[in-house]
Amino acid sequence: MDLTQKFLEVALIGAEWVLWLLVVLSVISVYVMLERFLFFRQIAGADGALRRKLLTTLADRDNAAAAKMVAGSPGSGARIVVEMLANESRGPAAIEAALNATRSEEKLRLERNLAFLGTLGANAPFIGLFGTVLGIIRAFKDLADAGLKAGGESSTAVMAGISEALVATAVGLLVAIPAVVAYNLFQRRVKRTMGEAEALAQSALGLLVSRKVEV
């Protein structure tokens, strides 16, 4: 079996399918960007706006009001406090365990689909380059089959083929750059949101645990 010939037959399919793959990936990336943008806009500042009022309520030992307050909040910190309040009767260890477990769940919720953007940003240029290589292989194969013609017609044809092949690299970069930018922006939003959530949850933890110590 001539492996080179087999791979050449595959390469001669051309780069068209690579371009379609990049288009599909770009559509998915745009969907992920919009979904994450709307998600972070919904929860932006939720924990910061809730913090002072919630801590005052917890300091007054009004757990029912505190539970009602955090139940309607979309913030990650509020969702952590919901679990902490649900486990308060089991003691300080249970409260802290609820905090740690829910914190991990919230981080996963905030980072949902961001791995796709990071992977696409890192690999889309290589996918485009792969399409360009396929296009160049096809262009030179066409040149070899046609042979040299008077007037440079074959050279003109192969140059046209190579220029078309380079489109795949350009499209790969066009898909990768927005994905990388969005990934970095959303990662910063994750860190900021988790910081606000941690501040709210740790403050609530201090109040809830201090009650048990006093008792």
Strand content: under 5%
Rg over CA atoms = 28 Å
* Count of DSSP H/I helices: 8
- Which class do the helix and strand fractions yield? mainly alpha
Q: What is the H/E string?
A: HHHHHHHH
Average pLDDT? 84
The helix content is over 70%
Which segments are poorly predicted (pLDDT under 50) over 5 or more consecutive residues? none
The 3D shape can be described as rod-shaped
Tally the beta strands. 0
3D architecture notes:
The protein is mainly alpha-helical and 215 residues long. It has one domain. Helix content is 86%, strand content 0%. Helix 2 runs antiparallel to helix 7, helix 4 packs antiparallel against helix 5 and helix 5 packs parallel to helix 8.
Question: Helices and strands in order, then pairings?
Answer:
Layout lengths: L2 H9 L4 H28 L2 H14 L3 H9 L4 H11 L5 H19 L3 H33 L6 H62 L1
Helix pairs in contact: 2-7, 2-8, 3-4, 3-8, 4-5, 5-6, 5-8, 6-8, 7-8
